[in-house]
Design a protein that fits this description.
34% helix; alpha+beta; 6 strands; single chain; YdfO-like fold
């Protein structure tokens, strides 16, 4: 593994460790922002994550929502918001969140750590953008 991969995985481990179970994403994202992450691009249902940092990018294979050809669900903004809120409430795991986003018709999403936004996209260009609040976290 490269030094960048080691740094990315160390930052992900730290962010996961400090993430509170309820309303944790802003804490997770702030830890990654402080570690030099600029963007995170997810592709569904393949579960591929591209992490972009000030030092370069890393591709990470995440949880897969479909393993064979499937019809892409129609974009359902309300179902997506329900999946986001369930994650925020701590009632779902991250793989369950990804499955919920996929079932809501999300084919990709982008986290912009500087802007503190997450943009979700459907196959026909549908888009839902949600901002998350700045938070204070302790030192790394």
């Amino acid at each position: 593994m490269s030094q960048l991969i080691d740094q990315v995985f160390a930052a992900l481990a730290h962010a996961t460790a400090i993430r509170p179970p309820v309303g944790g994403f802003p804490h997770f994202a702030e830890a990654l922002r402080r570690a030099g992450f600029t963007h995170n691009y997810w592709t569904l249902p393949s579960g591929q994550s591209i992490v972009v940092t000030n030092a370069g990018g890393v591709s990470i294979q995440g949880p897969v929502s479909a393993t064979s050809p499937v019809d892409i669900p129609s974009f359902d903004r309300d179902a997506l918001i329900a999946a986001i809120r369930a994650d925020q409430a701590g009632t779902t795991t991250f793989p369950e969140f990804l499955t919920g986003a996929w079932q809501a018709g999300v084919v990709r999403y982008t986290v912009d750590f500087a802007a503190r936004t997450v943009a979700y996209f459907g196959v026909h260009g549908e888009e839902y953008v949600e901002a998350y609040p700045p938070v204070e976290i302790g030192p790394a």
